[in-house]
Structure formats: structure tokens, C-alpha cells
């Protein structure tokens, strides 16, 4: 087994064995706001899968399109956070969060050429769902510290997905289909939680 295959297998095993979505519990203490933000995307498989999958998917696009997708993703992650913090909510938010993993996984598996506008729109929409959830869960916390923490971890997870995709694409490009399908199936499994 090559080094890339070992890294990819390790990442998939980590994703497959992460605890169920416990990320939606609220973060009450001021002292722990930043740490709560840092840990939040790691505590629920829904957020973990979505962040890694976004990086993995974005890596398949050319420079400007990739940058536009990631800029939109993080801008709407913050925008959704702000709206959630302000108390806005909408029906099917949790369903939307789960669907981000399913759809992103299928896009990775099929490697369909989508237009820049569609890719940026999907990335922004996915981020909005996750941002809302983060914003709604910061009641009693220091919002800017919590946001800083979850942005750092989210960016790290997106970068990890990006890096793994580049490694896989160089050594075993056919693995993209399997990895995408695994991500999509993990997303589907979240409907039962």
C-alpha cells in the first residue's frame, strides 16, 4: 500500500468512526468560547464530513474558480453565522446540513464539470446551512471568539480535504469515485441520527 493510499484510508477510517453529530449542544461559557468554536466542527460528523468534502471538491477546479468557491464558502459561513446569531432560523436546516455531504460526495464521485456560477452557488448554499447552525448554537457565548475558533477549524478541515484530494488525484485518480460515494453514503447515514 502506497503512502497516499495509507493517508486516504486513514482519513476515511477517521471519518467513518467519528462520533455522531453531538455538535449541536450550545456553548455556554465565556471562558471556553474560542475552544468551543475550535472543537465544534470536530464534534459532529455532519460538520466534519462537510468541511473535508468541500476542500476535496474544490481542489478539482482551476485556480480562480477554486478561489471563488472557497471565498464564497467562507463568506457565507460567516454570513449564516451572523443570521443564526441574530435568531433567524428556517425549517429543514438540519436536512440542509446533511444534504451538503450527500451532494458534495456525489459531485466528487461523478467529477461532473459544473459552471463556476453553479459551483460558487452550491458552495455558498452549503456554507449558509452550516453557518446558521453555528450561529444558533452560540447563545451565552462570546460570538466573535466562538466564530474565530470554528473558522480556524473549518479552514483546517477544508485544507485537509484539499490536500488529500491532490494526493489522491496524482497517485490513484480512480479513487475519487469511491471517496465521493463514501462521503455521500456517510451523508445519507446521517438522516438516521
From TrEMBL:
* Spans through the membrane: 33-56, 68-86, 117-136, 142-163, 175-192
Q: Which residues form the signal peptide?
A: 1-23
Top-level taxon: Bacteria
UniProt KW keywords: Membrane, Signal, Transmembrane, Transmembrane helix
InterPro entries recorded for this chain?
HupE_UreJ
Entries under Pfam families matching the protein: HupE_UreJ
Q: What's the name of the protein?
A: Urease accessory protein UreJ
